[in-house]
Amino acid sequence: MNIRRLFNLPLCRWVTVCARRFKIRKFCTKMYKYFKNYLNFKMVCHMSLLYAVTFFFILPHLCRNMRFSRYYSKPSNETDILLKQNDLRAHDAVKYSNYLRLQSQNSFQKSSHNDKVQREFTIAVITQSRDNNKRHYRPYYLTQVVNQLLKLSKSFTKSQKSVKILICNVDSNPRLHSEVLSLVNYTTVVERYKKNRASGLVQDEYEKEKQDYLFCLQNALSLSQSRYIIMLQDDAFPENNFFEALKYILKYQVETRWNRGEQMDNSQKWMLLKLYYPEKWQGYSKSLFDVLELIAVGLIFGPVLGSGYALFLNKNTSMWLATIILGIYSVIFVHGIGRPHWRELRHFSKYLYQLEPSHGCCTPGTLFPFPMAKRMARYLESISCNKTVPVDLVISQYPIKLGLEAYGIIPNVVRHIGMISSLKKTASSDKVSLMGMFN
Fold first, then answer.
1. Which of 10, 127, 262, 288 could be cross-linked to 234 through a Cys-Cys bond (beta carbons 3.0 to 4.6 Å apart)?
2. Kind of pairing between the strands at 163-169 and 188-191
3. Per-residue pLDDT reduced to its tens digit, 377-391
4. Is residue 242 within 8 Å of residue 413, measured between CB atoms?
5. Angle ∠(193,236,213) on CA atoms, nearest 5
6. Contact predicate 223/367, CB 8 Å
7. DSSP assignment string, 149-192
């Protein structure tokens, strides 16, 4: 039959001819008989009820406050909620600071600047004042972060010899940064600008940010011969298992790597470990890796749920059909809640943390081996930063130039609690970066 004659036929006749031509009719008949035998009324009711209750009632109710879920409902007072959460953390931090101040003999006495004791970690916290915002709101980010580090280091090692905390005050008017003054008794503090008001400030804020970072990195290197240097921003709040997770992942996944069943030394092949990547960019995308991850979810949970359903709830149905339907259900369920929230479950144990290739942004928290920190400091001295080449991009690209590995840790071991910019000093009502999820 030629094409012209085919298009001149009535519509019904044309569909029938096409069905015969491509054997669609035979296929549809087989599928109809299959579903007639196995897709019984009981199964239709069960699956319809499961989908309806889960995706229209349970998940919308449970996930409405989960910031990175598909069901997230943004409250009108979101900023007030986040500020209240910050106030609770700040209250606990200030209370702990007062407790330390009242102790006549405590283990947090400030050591000398040129302390050459061999340590596991030296942590440099980069800070500047955030008080000059339109609301006159004091967030106490630095107090929260430093006191959390002190608490965690106390439980990590009783001798306090493995962790050194350094506060780098890079405020152009350091005397006005009152938070630093309240912490100076039990931490080491360095100031970039010694005078009350620095003269000859760099006009480009991106170049100043790079110079501030370099200043803190160099001071951390000169402070002690630590095995690792950790650079933290003053709004990078450590998780409760910060040190335990880092020590485990460094020992078993970074310093040594498995290659074809053999444990290989990797200590000279990596340069940095990112401790934070924004949760809003951790969700499922259309990339091949994310699609394969969702398919894997369906392939794992589909057979488990399908076989359980066919064996215990509806023995007259097809296990394969139940597997397909419940596999699709599993994929939608996982995607609806959102990958950032599933990753939070890994905080329950240090053994659940894993590595991924580092992303080219964001430096709220970065860990360097001591020799690599020296190389990074020399490199930052030799380059200039601007709006198109910010310091976080420079830090991320340098390992690639050297042919070294740069890793990220899953999930984040620090939370970005900042809602007030240290550069523009604007409150959240003007321009806010709500990076953290609700607690």
1. 127
2. parallel
3. 999 999 998 888 889
4. yes
5. 35
6. no
7. HHHHHHHH-TT--SEEEEEEE--SSGGG-HHHHHHTTSSEEEES
Looking at the DSSP bridge assignments, the partners of residue 164 are 122
pLDDT tens digits, one per residue of 79-136: 888 888 888 888 888 888 888 777 644 444 555 555 566 788 999 999 988 765 545 6
Find, among 370, 93, 433, 118, the residue nearest to 237 by Cα: 93
Q: What is the pLDDT of residues 186-219, one digit of tens each?
A: 888 998 887 655 555 666 788 889 999 999 999 9
How does DSSP classify residue 57?
A: I
Residue 139 is inside which H or E element, if any?
none
Cα angle value 407/347/295 (rounded, 5°): 70
How many CB atoms neighbour CB 65 within 10 A?
16
Is the Cβ–Cβ distance between 354 and 248 less than 8 Å? no
Residue of 128, 122, 372 whose CA lies nearest to 222: 122
pTM: 0.81
Considering only CA atoms, which of 121, 180, 166, 202 is closest in space to residue 413? Answer: 121
Torsion of CA 35, 41, 42, 45, to 10 degrees: 100
Nearest residue to 145 (alpha-carbon basis) of 237, 34, 218, 71 = 237
Residue 319, by phi and psi: left (phi above 0), alpha (psi -120 to 50) or beta?
alpha
> Structure tokens of 160?
């306090």
Per-residue pLDDT tens for 155-195? 776 555 688 899 999 988 888 888 888 888 888 899 888 76
| Rounded Cα distance, 375 and 364, in Å | 20
Does residue 62 contact residue 53 with C-beta atoms inside 8 Å?
no
Query: Is the model's pLDDT at 13 over the cut of 70?
Result: no
Burial class of residue 254, CB neighbours in 10 A (0-12, 13-18, 19+): buried
